[in-house]
Amino acid sequence: MPETGWAGPGGRLSGLGVSQGRAAGPLVRMAGPPSLPAPRPVADPEAEAATAVKALEAVTADLNRRAAAARTGASAGAGGGGGAGAGGEAAEILEALAMIADDPMLREEAETRARGGADAAHALEAAFDGHRDALAALGGYLAERAADLDDLKHRAVAAALGLPMPGLPDPGHPYVLVAGDLSPADTAGLGPDVLALITERGGPTSHTAILARARGLPAVVACPAVADVPDGTIVGVDGASGEIALGLTPEQAAEVMERDRAERARLAAATGPGRTADGHPVRLLANIGSAADLRPGAEGVGLFRTEFLFLDRKQPPSPEEQTAAYAEVFERAEGPVIVRTLDAGTDKPLPFLGLPEEPNPALGVRGLRVDRLLPGVLDAQLAAIAEAARATGADVRVMAPMVTTPAEAAGFARRARAAGIAQVGVMVEVPAAALRAAELLREVDFLSIGTNDLAQYTFAADRQHPALADLLDPRQPALLGLIEACAAAGREAGKPVGVCGEAAGDPAVAPLLVGLGVTSLSMAPSCVPLVREALAGLTLEECRELAREALA
Amino acid sequence: MAQRTVAVASASGLHARPAKLFVQEAARLGVPVTVRLGDKAVPARSMLGVLSLGAVQGTEVTLEADGPGAEEALDALAALLSRDLDADAEPGGNSGAKSGAEEALDA
């Protein structure tokens, strides 16, 4: 697909392409939280107080402007129906934040501290921190608002120092977002104006990559040189090759966008079950985090992540709330749904679990291992899944994350079946599990290989580590060997073995996985058309040949 | 010193949307009003102060004000607190005059 010469008049940069597609537009950088310089001696305390007040006014005005924009967008979308919908909700939240930035107590404290000799930035920091600590001490809902105060503080301090406001930019036009890296919180707030993502750090399984694929946004990660490209430069992003063209004209950018639209339309026109050129079926399934992620085109859901229900919670969701959320997915999904039970730990701590901090969280209590400390959470979840399955009549299966031994698989299967779920599987993310695939399949009905974590644990390489991206390449022979062993065990047992890691959605890797004997591929819904096309272009024997070459 | 003691009627307490409506109304009225709960007293115009009271549904708070307009301001704010502001979020969903804050939210 990519023609040669993907470069602009300003030259070309290279990174790691992690989400297919092309886009072009002006580059806008996300500013990080400002670093507070050392306190400086103050000559004119009144001027510092005025600066602090002006900073708070600037933050208030910025939030009110964004609230108004969100509200306008919401009522335009809802036919003028008032503050309904996501835009209205966002506007309410932004307005409440603006009221906090405009709080008279906060302002007076900042002024008092400035008059007492602090510079504006430190006066603001002290004023915010006092309230943050007071809210945190109250616990519950108010403690959760403490993070809002930190965000407001960063904005006010940046304004006082004359730095850009931290957080996602909102330039008011479509743009290519550039950041050092993106946190899960940043990525959740991405608006429709974002055309493509470029990050300086990150690897193929970073949050940025996963989110970009889920949204169908072209993305390039691990591109440190982008730090030197000035804001406003029009860049073209090729999320397949990882190349970034610098200094395009607006006309060239429009042409890139138009071609990408045409390409997506062509791919979307192809439908039907996944199969190789000679008709060997490979089920194409979707990875989703909630009902909102469902798109037509996949043959079922191969990975329903359930963490969204538990994030940012001090208390676990009630059985009714869990059942309703699962039922919504079961009702709307086409084909079977594989639910993964709660996968907490490492990069996704859940406050309500109250797990102690660990020196080495990737090797600690995570996934199914949480059950060792808090057995009630899993049983409550299995009961809610079973209830939602009964209520909707859907074909529902469950699988557990981070299973390591056949004994763990047997215990999980027993409890899932006791809850009333017939089809039970486990994820293969730990080399120990892959090496005992045949034994696991004596206990369960299917395996689903999580290639991201399996690579991390096989190569002893942190998934998020920017310097180790080559070790996490899904084409590494040692990783492919473990996948092949699992597939062979599945063939022997007559049970399905799928891949639900990011590798399954890469059209360059998917045929290889099929050649290794994998029976289904589960991926971000936006990846399904490209993988369908890649498989349709090769016979099963050609896929096997690719696998043999890769293993050699 | 004029006073009104009133129980918070909103389901979510004096947090979130009800707190926002209350503080907006207090700011619009322009009369300095203090909200007292136990030995803690905060300005009604301060979102952080009102939140920090931690008042839940049914908590009794005392509103205090002095000077011209005090009685009217206390009546308006007491009336706001004694309605379930989570329930009548719908525009026009309640009888009686709308506060300025609610009209702003209806826009």
UniProtKB/TrEMBL annotation, chain A:
<dbReference type="InterPro" id="IPR008731">
    <property type="entry name" value="PTS_EIN"/>
</dbReference>
<dbReference type="InterPro" id="IPR024692">
    <property type="entry name" value="PTS_EI"/>
</dbReference>
<feature type="binding site">
    <location>
        <position position="429"/>
    </location>
    <ligand>
        <name>Mg(2+)</name>
    </ligand>
</feature>
<feature type="domain" description="PEP-utilising enzyme C-terminal">
    <location>
        <begin position="272"/>
        <end position="537"/>
    </location>
</feature>
<dbReference type="GO" id="GO:0009401">
    <property type="term" value="P:phosphoenolpyruvate-dependent sugar phosphotransferase system"/>
</dbReference>
<feature type="binding site">
    <location>
        <position position="453"/>
    </location>
    <ligand>
        <name>Mg(2+)</name>
    </ligand>
</feature>
<dbReference type="Pfam" id="PF05524">
    <property type="entry name" value="PEP-utilisers_N"/>
</dbReference>
<dbReference type="InterPro" id="IPR015813">
    <property type="entry name" value="Pyrv/PenolPyrv_kinase-like_dom"/>
</dbReference>
<dbReference type="InterPro" id="IPR018274">
    <property type="entry name" value="PEP_util_AS"/>
</dbReference>
<dbReference type="InterPro" id="IPR000121">
    <property type="entry name" value="PEP_util_C"/>
</dbReference>
<keyword id="KW-0963">Cytoplasm</keyword>
<dbReference type="GO" id="GO:0005737">
    <property type="term" value="C:cytoplasm"/>
</dbReference>
<feature type="domain" description="Phosphotransferase system enzyme I N-terminal">
    <location>
        <begin position="15"/>
        <end position="145"/>
    </location>
</feature>
<feature type="binding site">
    <location>
        <position position="463"/>
    </location>
    <ligand>
        <name>phosphoenolpyruvate</name>
    </ligand>
</feature>
<keyword id="KW-0813">Transport</keyword>
<dbReference type="InterPro" id="IPR008279">
    <property type="entry name" value="PEP-util_enz_mobile_dom"/>
</dbReference>
<keyword id="KW-0418">Kinase</keyword>
<dbReference type="InterPro" id="IPR036618">
    <property type="entry name" value="PtsI_HPr-bd_sf"/>
</dbReference>
<feature type="active site" description="Proton donor">
    <location>
        <position position="500"/>
    </location>
</feature>
<keyword id="KW-0460">Magnesium</keyword>
<feature type="domain" description="PEP-utilising enzyme mobile">
    <location>
        <begin position="174"/>
        <end position="242"/>
    </location>
</feature>
<dbReference type="GO" id="GO:0046872">
    <property type="term" value="F:metal ion binding"/>
</dbReference>
UniProtKB/TrEMBL annotation, chain B:
<dbReference type="GO" id="GO:0005737">
    <property type="term" value="C:cytoplasm"/>
</dbReference>
<keyword id="KW-0963">Cytoplasm</keyword>
<feature type="domain" description="HPr">
    <location>
        <begin position="1"/>
        <end position="88"/>
    </location>
</feature>
<dbReference type="Pfam" id="PF00381">
    <property type="entry name" value="PTS-HPr"/>
</dbReference>
<feature type="region of interest" description="Disordered">
    <location>
        <begin position="85"/>
        <end position="107"/>
    </location>
</feature>
<dbReference type="InterPro" id="IPR035895">
    <property type="entry name" value="HPr-like_sf"/>
</dbReference>
<protein>
    <submittedName>
        <fullName>Phosphocarrier protein</fullName>
    </submittedName>
</protein>
<dbReference type="InterPro" id="IPR000032">
    <property type="entry name" value="HPr-like"/>
</dbReference>
<dbReference type="GO" id="GO:0009401">
    <property type="term" value="P:phosphoenolpyruvate-dependent sugar phosphotransferase system"/>
</dbReference>
<keyword id="KW-0598">Phosphotransferase system</keyword>
<dbReference type="InterPro" id="IPR050399">
    <property type="entry name" value="HPr"/>
</dbReference>
